[in-house]
């Protein structure tokens, strides 16, 4: 197993008490697998990616749980051990809005070479940079340009090249297509698909865009209010969603056949003051008496598909 997150709880201190961004989350990614993590804004998706990258800082804290990467619990490592042996070398990350993270006063090539230097790449920096540019389907001459000379799509490809600089086996892509036009979004997803096929890397894609996710992932997890609502294969999640929340998310995707978008009424509960029982109950059209009292646990409904809902 490449990554195994077990019963992870991440809380943020606030004057109103602990904000429970993640409250007992499990997630697995196998070698060479592309896994999606989806849910509305504020459901805890990015908190999970930051926890895997060991980037939770006060007022946030890891309350409990394990994050096993290739069998080693990265939460037990000292910061130097993680920085030297794991961050970027084994776990690379494309952050939300990362294409705007390039330093404006250095060329793209200089910034990629800095990564190679920090991570002690053994080969020639210039030829590695050229190869990386080709890998993400950019003309190597772009490495000589400054970030402001690139389009959004080119900057995102250049950032993916930088993330893959030292051949990490695992990539986290947090909203990798945000702020890009629809055609460029599809191109970036196709690029990730190709890189997975050619390099065999495992990818965790985090997004609120289920339509894009359905194009690329092997399996998907649906997160709601810091808890997993459902998980399953791409086919199970996108064609036979079981949880009313997943059904609502799928119903919110516009299609060519219909202009009617169902949407999900209401808002996610306050994470500092969560209600008892199912956290989706106030928005769920199928809510029953038990839903407001007892929290449902994930239960297998089909091989590979697990749902946290009293309907099953
Ligand atoms: Fe709806 Fe109840 Fe299922 Fe929650 S447990 S999603 S409220 S039916």
What does this structure look like?
This protein is of the alpha/beta class. It has a domain at 3-90 and 168-267: Rossmann fold (3-Layer(aba) Sandwich). It is 27% helix and 23% strand. The chain is built from nine helices and twelve strands. The protein has helices spanning 45-52, 79-85, 108-118, 125-135, 152-163, 182-199, 210-213, 234-239, 244-251; strands at residues 3-12, 19-29, 34-38, 60-69, 72-73, 91-94, 170-174, 202-207, 219-224, 227-233, 299-302, 305-307. The chain has an eight-stranded mixed beta sheet, with helices on both faces. Strands 2-1-4-5 form a four-stranded antiparallel beta sheet, with helices on one face. Helix 3 packs across helix 4 and helix 4 crosses helix 5 (152-163). It is globular. The structure holds iron/sulfur cluster. Residues 243-244, 278, 280-281, 284, 286-288, 291, 296, 309-311 line the site of iron/sulfur cluster.
Q: Could you name the key traits of this structure?
A:
binds iron/sulfur cluster; Rossmann fold; alpha/beta; 9 helices; 312 residues; eight-stranded mixed β-sheet
Mind telling me the CATH class of the domain at 3-90 and 168-267? Alpha Beta
Helix content: 25-40%
Q: What do the pLDDT scores average to?
A: 94
The number of E-state strands comes to 12
SSE string, helices as H and strands as E:
EEEHEEHEHHHEHEHEEHHEE
Structural class by sheet pairing and helices: alpha/beta
Spatial arrangement of strands, main beta sheet: 6-7-8-3-9-10-12-11
Percent of sequence in beta strands: 15-25%
Cα end-to-end separation = 29 Å
Shape, per Cα inertia axes = globular
Name given to the CATH homologous superfamily of the domain at 3-90 and 168-267: P-loop containing nucleotide triphosphate hydrolases
Runs with pLDDT <50, length 5+? none
**Bound small molecules, which ones?**
iron/sulfur cluster
Radius of gyration: 20 Å
The CATH topology label of the domain at 3-90 and 168-267 is: Rossmann fold
What does the main sheet amount to?
8 strands, mixed
- Count of DSSP-assigned helices: 9
CATH-level-2 architecture of the domain at 3-90 and 168-267: 3-Layer(aba) Sandwich
């Amino acid at each position: 197993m490449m990554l195994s997150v077990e019963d992870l709880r991440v809380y943020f201190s606030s004057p109103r008490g602990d904000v429970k961004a993640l409250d007992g989350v499990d997630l697995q990614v196998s070698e060479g697998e592309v896994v999606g993590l989806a849910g509305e804004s504020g459901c805890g998706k990015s908190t999970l990616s930051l926890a895997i990258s060991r980037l939770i800082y006060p007022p946030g804290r890891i309350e409990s749980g394990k994050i096993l990467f290739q069998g080693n619990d990265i939460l037990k490592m000292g910061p130097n051990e993680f920085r030297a042996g794991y961050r970027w070398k084994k776990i690379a990350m494309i952050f939300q809005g990362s294409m705007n993270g390039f330093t404006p006063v250095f060329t793209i090539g200089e910034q990629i070479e800095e990564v190679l230097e920090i991570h002690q790449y053994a080969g020639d920096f210039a030829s590695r940079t050229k190869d990386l540019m080709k890998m993400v389907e950019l003309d190597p001459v772009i490495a000589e340009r400054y970030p402001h000379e690139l389009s959004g799509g080119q900057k995102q490809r250049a950032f993916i090249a930088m993330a893959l600089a030292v051949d990490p086996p695992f990539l986290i892509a947090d909203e990798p297509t945000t702020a890009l036009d629809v055609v460029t979004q599809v191109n970036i997803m196709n690029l990730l698909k190709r890189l997975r096929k050619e390099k065999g890397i495992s990818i965790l894609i985090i997004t609120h865009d289920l339509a894009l996710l359905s194009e690329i992932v092997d399996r998907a997890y649906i997160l709601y209010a810091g808890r997993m609502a459902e998980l399953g294969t791409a086919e199970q999640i996108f064609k036979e969603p079981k949880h009313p929340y997943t059904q609502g998310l799928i119903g919110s995707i516009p299609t060519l056949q219909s202009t009617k978008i169902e949407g999900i009424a209401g808002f996610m509960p306050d994470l500092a003051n969560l209600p008892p029982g199912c956290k989706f109950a106030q928005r769920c059209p199928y809510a029953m008496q038990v839903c407001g009292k007892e929290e449902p646990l994930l239960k297998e409904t089909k091989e590979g598909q697990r749902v946290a809902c009293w309907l099953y």
